[in-house]
Amino acid sequence: MIPTERKQDFYEHLLGRIVVLDFTALSTSMVHPTLLTIFYAFLLSFILGTVLAILYIKTFQGLSYSRNFLHCLVLCPIITATAMQAIGENVARGIGMIGAISLLRFRTNIKDPRDMFFIFASLAVGVAAGVHAYAIGTIGILCFTAAVLVLSKTPFAHGPQFDALLRLQLKRDDQTVRDLEKVLLDNCKHFAMISAREIGQGDSLDYAYQLKFKNQVNQHTIINSLQTVSGAKGVNLMMQDSIIEV
Question: Which residues of 160-184 are buried (b: 16+ CB within 10 A; e: fewer)?
Answer without folding.
Answer: eebbbbbbbbbeeeeebbebbeebb
